[in-house]
# Entry
Amino acid sequence: MALDNESQNQKRNFKVVGTRVQRPDGIDKVTGKARFGADMSAPGMLVGRVLRSPHAHAQIKSIDTSEAEALAGVRAVVTRADFAVIEDDEFTADTLDNCMAGEKALYDGHAVAAVAASSTAIAKKALKLIKVDYEVLPNVTDVDAAMALDAPVLHEGRANETVPAGMSSNVVARHEFGHGDIEAGLAQADRVLERTYRTAATHQGYIEPHACLATMGPDGQADLWCCTQGHYFVRDLCAAILGMKQGQLRVTASEIGGGFGGKTTVFLEPVALALSKKSGRPVKMVMSRSEVLRASGPTASSSIDVRIGMTKDGKITAGFAELRYQGGAYPGSPVEFGAMSAFAPYDLEHVKTVGWDVVSNRPRQAAYRAPGAPMAAYAVESAVDELAKGFGLDPLEVRLKNAAREGTKASYGPTFPAIGLEATLQAAKDHPHWAAPLGENQGRGVACGFWFNFGGNTCVSMSITPDGTVTVSEGNPDIGGSRASMSMMAAEELGISYDRVRTIIADTGSLGMNDVTDGSRVTFAVGLATIKAARAAKAEMCKRAAQVWGIDEDAVIWEDGAAKPAGPNAGEFPPMSLAEIAAIASNTGGPISGHHEVNAEGAGVSFATHMVDTETDPETGAVKILRYTVFQDAGKAVHPDYVEGQFQGGAVQGIGWALNEEYVYGDDGVLQNPIFLDYRVPVASDLPMIDTVILEIPNPGHPYGVRGVGETSIVPPLAAVANAVSESAGVRMTELPMSPPKVLAAMKSK
Amino acid sequence: MVQVKIWGSLAAATDDQTTVEIKAETLRELLDGLGKKYPAIQPQLDRGVSVAIDGWIYNDSWFTPIKPDSEVVLLARLKGG
# Structure
C-alpha cells in the first residue's frame, strides 16, 4: 500500500475529530449491562476447569484421568493427547504446549489437564481425582542464573543461529543493533558511566480475568466467545491447535476488561474447544485471579548493563547496552524491541545494543504495552540522568541537546522522518511543573520514551441504513476507545453528526482478516480504513444523486453531508443529504455501503517525555507520587479524552512497575504472590491526577495525521520515577521495583 | 541495485557485511533476493522481518516500490501490545 500523504501539506478544519463526544460504551459499562467474557452463557453449558502443575519444572511421567472421568457429572477430560500434533511451526507448537503441557511442566501453574462438568463443585472434585506422576526437576527463574552454564535446562536445541556456541541452552536468541565505534565514542567522553539495572516481571493487571465460552458440534463447526484483543488471531491459533479449518470456527470478541497486550494470545480457548468437542456440550471457562497471575503472560524480567559516555557540556558521545530478558518457558522475550528502542530518543554517532533472549521456569511472557521498551528505557534514561546531574546539567537540556529529530539515523537503523520528541521536551521545559518548587524529601525526575507503532491487516465495512444512520463494522476489539474514534472519523468524512454513526466489532465470519489490536495500530489502521470506506460510500451516494439529477456522476461532489452539483455548469439542483439518498436507495440501485480492506503501512513512530515529583518517607522508604505530567505526540488526537486516558493509563502502569509490582518466586520456583493483595498494583488513592499535554505533529502516513498512542506512554515512567526517587531518597536506585524495604535499605546504606 | 542495511546479529549470515546490495524494485524482490544471495539469512526471513524504506516501516506488502536510492533497513518483525 502506498503511503497516504494527504495530511502532509494540508491543514484541515475538523468538525467532529478532536472533540470530546460521549463514549458509546459508557452507559453499558457503568450500569453493568456490558457483556464481558464471563457473561456469556448457553443452554446445557458445562463448567471447564484446569489442573495446573504445582511444580516449576517436572517431567510428566503419566496422567491417569480414569477416576475423574468416572465421576458423576463429568462430561469430558482432556490432556495433551486430545490436541493436534504440530511439527512445522514452533510458535504454534509452543502456544499449544503453553495451553496444555506435553512431556514437561515448565512452570508453576502450567496446565496439565482439564475437565468439563455440570457444576463448578464437580469440576473441582474431578481435578483432585486426576493422578499426575511427576518427576520434579531443578528449576531456574532468574535471567542471569538461567544463562549460567550449569543452570537447569528447559529445552535442548531451541537456540537459533544467532547464538554463539558454548552458551547455556536456555539462551535462545541474540540481537544486535547500532552503528559507529563504541570504544572510539567513549574515548571522547569526559565521563563514562557503567551501571547494571534490573527490573522485575510485571503483569498487565487487567481487571477482567481470561474467560470464554466454546461450542463445537458433531459436524466440526464451532463458535467461540471470548475476551481477547484479537479474535481473528484466536481463530487461527485455535484452528491450528485443534486441527480445524479456520472457516469452521467463528470467534466473537466480548467486551474487554483490559488487555494491555496480555490478551493477544490464547490460554483457555483451545482447551474449552477441546472439552466441547469431547463432551458435545457448550463449555465455559473463567480463570481465577491466581490462575491469571500464575499462568497467563506477564512481561519479561530483565538485567541490563549500560555504558554511556558524556562530555561535561552534556553531549552523549556513545551509548552501549547489553540486555538480558527472560520471557518465561518459551523463546520470544521482547528483548529485540528493547535493544532496538533503548537509545531511540537520541541522535548518536556511536551506539550499540546487544539483546539476549533467555528461557526460564516462569509462565510464557505475553506482550505488555510497548513490549520490551520500558525496561530498556529505564536503564538508559537512568544513566543519562545520572550523568547529566553529575555534571550539574539540566536533564531536560541534556536530552534536548542530544534529541533525535527528523533526519537522525535511529539507533536501530532507519533515518527518522518528522518526529515529535523535541516538541515533547520543549513542552516539558515550558510547563509550570518544571519550575514548581519542591519540598524536603521530594525530588523531580524526567525521562523520554519511544515506540514504533505499526499498521497491519484491516477491514472496515460501512452500511448506510435506510433512515440515514450509519453502521461501521470493524474487526478489532475496542480496548481503548476505538468505537468512538471510528464513529468520529466516519462522521467527519461523511459530514454528518457523531450520534448518527454506530461502530460495532464484527465476528470473524463477517469481515476479512484483521490483525490483533496491538502495536498501537487501531486508531491509525482501522481509522484509515474507515475513512476510505466512507469515501467509497460517498462516491456511491454521489453516483446515486447524479442518476436522480440526470447528470454525469463526475459532476457531483460531497460537501457538508450532502451530494451537490460540482458547479454551475453541472446544473441547478438542491443538495441531496445522506438521509435523502439513503431513503431512495432501493429505487436507485439497492443498498449503499462502503468498505475498505488494506494491509496498512506507514504508521508513525511516537515519542513521549514524562515528568514526575516524588516524596520519600525517610522512616519507611515508601515513595509517594506527588505530581505527574505526560507530554506525548499523538499525531492527531481523534478523541482527546481517550488519548489522555491512554497517556494516564500508561503512566500509572509504569508507576506500579517502578514502585511495587513484581513476581516473587521461592527457591522451589513457585509464585509466592498470586493475588492482588500481594501483587501490589497502584490504586486511585496512591495517585495524583495525571496531567497530560497532547502534542500534535501530524503523521504523513494517515489522512488525518493520526499516530498510535497506546504504548509509548508506558515507556518513560519507570525511569522518570527512578530519577525522581534518586533525588527524593538521595540515593540512586538501580533495581525495580523500588518497594519500601529496598528504598529504606538503600537510604540506610548510602 | 538497492543498498540494504542488515542489523548486527544477522551480519554473520551476510558474510559479516552490515550493508548488502540486492537487485530489487519491490519489497518482494528484495526479500526473495536476500534469501537467494544469502541463504543463511533465510531462517530470520522465515521468522519474519519488517523493512524500513525511507524511514517508513513496512511489514509484508510485497509490491511496495523501492527506488534505487531508497534507504532500506531490515528490522526485526515488529510486534506490539
In short: Residues 46-137+210-286 of chain A form a domain with the Aldehyde Oxidoreductase; domain 3 fold (CATH 3.90.1170.50).
